[in-house]
Design a protein that fits this description.
The protein is α+β, with helices and mostly antiparallel strands. The protein contains 2 helices and 5 strands, in the order βααββββ.
Length: about 90
């Protein structure tokens, strides 16, 4: 009998600007910190705080980890299956 699976993780996709930001990160410590933050929002896309805005565009969220000093701005698709990272600050 197969082992029970845990909750499904969201798939993470990066915008073009976020992908460019990723290319500039060279520190292994920064990559590790970013990876930890991405795991948090892939497990719980609602982990971040909603940012104020209007209802015409995507509902942006911000996840901040003060210990790892990481900030991500992202939105979640309607099906909550894909988290798109719009901004990365490590």
């Amino acid at each position: 009998m197969p082992a029970p699976q845990g909750p499904r993780r969201a798939r993470i996709a990066f915008s073009d600007s976020a992908a460019k930001q990723l290319d500039t990160i060279t520190s292994e410590a920064e990559l590790h910190a970013l990876d930890r933050a991405l795991v948090v929002i892939s497990v719980d896309p609602d982990a971040g705080e909603p940012l104020p805005g209007d209802s015409t565009g995507p509902h942006l969220r911000q996840y901040v980890d003060d210990v790892e000093r990481v900030r991500l701005m992202y939105w979640v698709t309607a099906l909550k299956t894909v988290v798109v990272v719009a901004f990365i600050e490590v």
